[in-house]
Amino acid sequence: MRILLTGATGFIGRHLVASLQRGGHTVRAALREEIPVAPGVERAVVGDIGGSPDWRPALAGVDAVIHAAGIAHAGPDVPPERYHRVNHAATLHLAHAARGRVERFVFLSSIRAQTGPSSPAVQRETDDPYPTDDYGRSKLAAERGLAEIDDLFAVSLRPVLVYGPGVRGNMGALIGLARLPIPLPFGALRARRSLVAVETVAEAVAHLLTTRDAAGKPPAGPFIVADRVPVNVGEIIAALRAGQGRRPGLLSVPVPLLRAGLSPLGRAALLERLDSPLVVEGLRLAQSGFTPSVSSREGLRRLGALLARRRTDGEQNRE
């Protein structure tokens, strides 16, 4: 297939490019401007996706679209109008341009289209969605808009917190902590969270490009994607450090003491994020025949080993 990919230079997009090329597909990257891309990738400069670009040249000869571009985080620094323009309106603008032209349209949504940053109950696609911020609401609005477009086989993928080489944000900060040569006071944090390896996200996208339901039609609606078993913060740290050949190095400091110590530093909110549950169950992907190829513990261990090798190689190159 020839696939138009937006967000090809982002964290998930770079892994999608590599995965799709390994699968024998031709990737055409939709770019804001002329910038270097991976070897073998076609370029299509479309400008700002939030500016209603003309998608027709980029879509010429394309079999499928993977829309991974958008504002990838929730935060008070992003005005609601920008979420709407980039995550919602721009998605539907591209989808309408692709209508009747492509075999499949895969939208990279988010678990935040379904729930807030934490949930006391296991989340499934069959649950009613209740996003709690403008980021999640913009993703859900895009999903619902796609479902209303005739002559477009669109599917939405809802990843949980993604980890992998190059990740930033909260997961990147946690990986940075795990690399420190000191004990960490997170052994008492027990809240479990579902994570997903970026490789698994890429595999799920490739699966949704070709899978069909029992009636022989492309599947519709949202699909949650996550590793098989949720983990807590201590298990994340332990797995990352195991990949580096290190012991877990975790101290079981009571949560009230942690909170008292972090509050004067303005990091109490970080503690709340680390110790809040969000467990999901991707029923629809499983029913379609997809199984994640790696567990969180194994994926994090591999990531820790990769980062350790890169650090060692960097040190040797400097010598």
From TrEMBL:
Keyword Iron in annotation: no
PANTHER family per record: BIFUNCTIONAL POLYMYXIN RESISTANCE PROTEIN ARNA, BLL5923 PROTEIN
E.C. number(s) listed in UniProt: 5.1.3.2
InterPro entries in the cross-refs: Epimerase_deHydtase, Lipid_A_modif_metabolic_enz, NAD(P)-bd_dom_sf
Keyword Nuclease: no
UniProt protein name: UDP-glucose 4-epimerase
Top-level taxon in the UniProt lineage: Bacteria
Gene3D superfamilies per the UniProt record, alphabetical: NAD(P)-binding Rossmann-like Domain (3.40.50.720)
Domain NAD-dependent epimerase/dehydratase positions: 3-217
Pfam families: Epimerase
Keywords from the UniProt entry: Isomerase
